[in-house]
Amino acid sequence: SITGEKHQRVTEQIISAISPQVWMDGKILGISAVGLSLIIVYGTVSLLMSGTVFWIAGYNPLRLFAFVNVPLMLLQLVLALLGILFWNCFFAAIAATVDDPNTSSRSVIMFLPFLPVMITVAGIRNPDSTLMKVLGIFPVTSPTALSARLVLTPVAAWEVLVAMGLLLVTIWLLRKAAARIFRLAMLMHGKEPSL
């Protein structure tokens, strides 16, 4: 949506009325809300399907809630939301540099979120290793690695707080960068901005 709107002349008029930061914040929040709603829908469907399986097996479906750790589930939801915001801010900054998505060489960057998942899967055998602890705090990998560690092993509260704090600061910096890049890219027609 960001690259498509750059081609429309009405975007230039809207940018003269609102700041690029407000524009990008709206884009990032809207796309992130879609991602969060999908997580909630998938979680709800999973609970309903599990309850149906319990019911078919002859058990009371309400027993399913005995297996749900509500604080951990809420913490995982917060980590998922922060991860969604992080990657959407990152992708908003990248998309703001793309002039034509059909000819841009930057589309390869869209596969970057898979890298933290692959690294986390590689280190999942030993969730208490130094590597997994560092990955659980590092903002790029923390939504994935910390989520895995929380399920597999006890994690110190300070690790969770530091990871979330660093992730929030990184999100704030990325959203600021995305708006600046978008503002610059709106002034450049016909070529993609570089570093």
Description:
The longest helix has 37 residues, at 20-56. It is built from eight helices and no strands. The protein has helices at 2-6, 9-17, 20-56, 70-97, 114-123, 130-137, 142-152, 157-187. By secondary structure, the chain is mainly alpha-helical.
Q: Classify the beta-strand content into a percent band.
A: under 5%
| Low-pLDDT ranges | none
What is the string of helix and strand elements? Answer: HHHHHHHH
Distance between the termini: 22 Å
Report the count of strand segments.
Answer: 0
Mean pLDDT: 82
Structural class: mainly alpha
Report the total helices: 8
Give the C-alpha Rg.
20 Å
Largest sheet: none
Taken from the alpha-carbon principal axes, the silhouette is globular
Helix content: over 70%
Describe the structure in brief:
The protein is an all-alpha fold.
Note the topology:
Layout: H1 2-6, H2 9-17, H3 20-56, H4 70-97, H5 114-123, H6 130-137, H7 142-152, H8 157-187
Features:
globular, 71% helix, 8 helices, 195 residues, mainly alpha
